[in-house]
Specification:
By secondary structure, this protein is of the alpha/beta class. It is built from twelve helices and eleven strands. It folds into two domains: about 110 residues, no CATH class; about 240 residues, Rossmann fold.
């Protein structure tokens, strides 16, 4: 039988694995927190109240949330999202430990009532090209359903402008910002016409609520000040867009959504099923296959690859088989469901921040 110490050892292992991942992904402050926290029983016991598979980031995001609400604490000086000239991360851990002791009850409440729903407008860079592919195959206007929608940032991908290849800027000149990146290969880009927008999430975020907006902004890495500001602008767009939000277990909502949604239909998810257990993923696939007996629809998946999943859990296997976190840590797939069957193809590989997409031409 597993003991309390066994549980803390597992959390410590997650902290150690996350320390390396955070450094590779450009957040040395959270890496510093992980290295200190892995040896601190008080921090580990607090983090153990967090979301399975994301305990370190859940705790750090809860800390960030409190600091965004009151940036007067000395710990704020290490966050670029809170300080114009942040202190270097070395030496930040004692301040984190102190802050967690002083705010333990508040942090525990957040860990028990909030979930990790990290999203960035920049993720749309990996969505545009597959949406163009689906729009050409399925027709327009596309009716969208996102599983794991959080606040719905990706559901309004068409409201932004893009500069990803030699086509120049794609999108409206009135867009709130231009998302720049590198698309190597891929289809001709355009902004598809969108019909209805439906989002499903275990805990949906209301972009009109200041408190809920702050939670989403707290999920941004502390070094990503510009990205956090773009996310805030995206939330303003969402607040003015007609989106149907469905809260609860996705498996419970999907059958009804599929029955009601009109053609052409595109379902998509991004860094969502990564957290689902295998039996839930299998159940979702079975629902899709069953629904496709009487109609056809498309599915876009932008998820971490199996190799990255193993690394994230601290089981990298043979060193020669490990992919760096900042290159091709995920894959983009397009699936077409029809006649009770599915045709799936991997069309691309984004890097960790979705800024570089290698297309499978």
């Amino acid at each position: 039988m597993a003991t309390a110490q066994d549980a803390l050892d597992m959390v410590a292992g997650a902290f150690r694995a996350s320390a390396h991942i955070y450094r590779e992904m450009g957040t040395p402050l959270y890496a510093e927190f992980c290295e200190g926290g892995a040896e601190d029983a008080d921090i580990l016991s607090l983090a153990d109240h967090g979301m399975e598979g994301a305990k370190p980031s859940h705790l750090f995001s809860a800390v960030h949330y409190l600091l965004l609400g009151d940036p007067s604490d000395p710990l704020s000086r290490y966050f670029a999202t809170l300080a114009d000239d942040p202190l270097p991360p070395g030496g930040a851990y004692p301040e984190l430990a102190r802050f967690c002791r002083e705010h333990r009850d508040e942090l525990r409440h957040l860990l028990q009532t909030r979930s990790v729903q990290t999203t960035y407008a920049e993720r749309c860079r990996a969505l545009l090209a597959p949406m163009c592919e689906v729009a050409r195959e399925a027709g327009e206007p596309l009716n969208l359903v996102e599983i794991g929608c959080s606040a719905g940032v990706l559901l309004v991908f068409d409201k932004f402008a893009y500069k990803l290849n030699d086509q120049g800027v794609i999108g409206s000149p009135d867009a709130p910002f231009v998302l720049e990146g590198e698309l190597h290969g891929g289809p001709e880009l355009f902004i598809p016409r969108i019909g209805t927008r439906t989002g499903i999430d275990l805990h949906t975020i209301d972009a009109r609520s200041e408190e809920e907006r702050r939670w989403l902004l707290s999920l941004c890495f502390p070094e990503l000040r510009d990205e956090q500001q773009r996310l805030a602008k995206a939330l303003d767009i969402i607040a003015d867009t007609d989106i149907t939000m469905l809260e609860g277990n996705g498996l419970e909502h999907v059958p009804d959504v599929l029955a009601r949604a009109e053609n052409p239909l595109c379902i998509f998810h991004s860094a969502c099923l990564f957290y689902w257990p295998a039996d839930a993923k299998a159940a979702l696939e079975e629902m899709f296959l069953k629904a496709s007996r009487s109609r056809q629809f498309w599915r876009i998946g932008i998820e971490p690859s199996d190799s990255f999943d193993e690394w994230h859990k601290g089981r990298p296997g043979h060193e020669s088989n490990r992919k760096p976190a900042n290159r091709q840590s995920g894959e983009i797939s397009i699936s077409r469901y029809a006649d009770g069957a599915v045709e799936r193809r991997v069309v691309g590989w984004p890097n960790a921040d979705y800024g570089i997409i290698d297309w499978n031409d």
